[in-house]
Amino acid sequence: MKAKVKAGALRSSLAQTRRRIYFTNVNTVLEITDLSVEYPSREKGVGKKLAVNGLNLKIQAGEVFGFLGPNGAGKTTTMNVLLGFVNAKSGSASIFGVDVRQPIARQRIGYLPELTYYYKFLNTEELLRFYGTIFRIPGPELERRIDSVLKLVGLEHARKRLIKTYSKGMQQRAGLAQALINNPDLLILDEPTSGLDPVGRMKVREIIERLKGEGKTVFFSSHELGEVETVCDRVGILNQGQLKVEGRVEDLVKQYQCHLEQIFLKIIGYEAAS
Amino acid sequence: MRNAFALSGVVIKEMYRRKDFYVLFVLTVLITLVMGSINIFGDNQIVRYLKEICLLLIWISALIIAVTTTARQIPAERESRTIFPLLAKPVSRAELVAGKFLGCWLASGACLLVFYLFFGVLSGTREHSWPVLNYFQALWLHWIFLAVVIAAVLLGSVVFAAPSSNATICLVVIIGILFLGGHLNRVATNIPGAPGTILSVIYFTIPHLEWYDVRDLITHDRPLINWVACGLATLYGLGYSTILLILGWAVFRRKTLTL
Ligand SMILES: Nc1ncnc2c1ncn2[C@@H]1O[C@H](COP(=O)(O)OP(=O)(O)O)[C@@H](O)[C@H]1O
Ligand SMILES: [Mg+2]
After folding, report:
1. Helix or strand or coil: residue B158?
2. A22: Cβ below 6 Å to ligand 1?
3. A131 to chain B, minimum CA–CA distance in Å?
4. How far apart are CA B195 and CA A23, in angstroms?
5. Cα–Cα distance, A151 to A156 (Å, whole number)
6. What is this structure's pTM?
7. Which of A69, A163, B43, B218 has its CA 20 to 30 A from that of A180?
8. What is the rounded CA–CA span in Å between residue A52 and residue A238?
């Protein structure tokens, strides 16, 4: 009896959370407060390594935010916390007002990991169908979505092929298709263009711009500063786990009186050999 | 729960697209048929011997399939990084564990069905009797046995880093229990002092997998097992599986997932 009541209460609180996710029109899509993440160090003699150090960040609905930083700055780690892969040492993060530790916080997210991945034994269509089921997209609707995302990323012709037979660029596009299957409002893309040829990069950039046009929020990491300049509303530069600079691209350029690339180099402490 | 079913669907798909099951099934059939071809006169003794061999092969094959398939599930998700896009969806880690368990258990159940069908046809054509209910009991208990095995291997796969060492450790423990589990208590009462007590404690905590091995009853054409006993064994096995799964989830729940 007691257990029944408890389960009922749980269900209704879950329903409440869902309703909050669907119906509140919060402008802050992503909020990170005082976030620190620690790893057991890979170096000898050092106990722990602070990969993210006191990070604060707010992203508004409809923004395209470029998360910049050199290799090892902590970009992937930050995203890993947002997706619940890694636990924060301190601080908190929420997406659409829901703590990222709750699975339901991920209902409206699309995520593209840094490195490619695939189930060896599934083709793209089956993969998308599997993920769609997890998002509880009803059957006919799901088939329509699969058609439309495959068309968007240009993989209709290869939908019945195993992803492992794809080229790198095609795998990345399959990754994007997977990230878009639930028609997400927030996209978290970890270096979506790294390792792609110019055509592949262009294609990914087009997709990001298209999503921006649809009013989606995009949070992506990169060190391709040129493309960041063209697609981002706002950027943040991370170095050694700390956010050094954050603001609109034009404002930063005005403030520093130089290109984004030079700002980036200055901030990470790179001195050009003259 | 729906997520768990979706996940189990992927496990099952993987199982039938891989060759392991077919290879072991064909091997079992071939060895049994070769053994069977010796039996020209339909001698009772030889039919019994044939059934024994076939059931032994079925037990070995099913154990290998269940352990190796389960052991690689979560490590493979991590290694191929498919776990990242998966857990970036609204899936909890509890659902992931439950889904992997369900998938492996249902898939090995399907394998068992094929194996026992072959066994039934084989012994039926030799003996001209069809004790379907007896075979069903054996299959059912075997399947419950595999539930415990799969839950244990799943727990092992989040505790031990390498899937191969996990599979080896689990196989050794399971086979150890199958051979020794029933005798520990008798040995314990013969050993005085602390070692004896420890043995008794072990006897009362291990899952008694040997109960599920009813091959002798089949080969010797014994009457049906009491259905109540079957039901209790089912509850006992599923209870143990649940405990092992909860332990697995507890270990996996807060695990940091990075490369
Ligand atoms: N699993 C891990 N264990 C230990 N250290 C790690 C781990 N993952 C990342 N790091 C360290 O944390 C820091 C941040 O890494 P990461 O977030 O991957 O950087 P980025 O994505 O910006 O290149 C790096 O110094 C890296 O070596
Ligand atoms: Mg990275």
Report:
1. helix
2. no
3. 8
4. 64
5. 6
6. 0.88
7. A69
8. 9
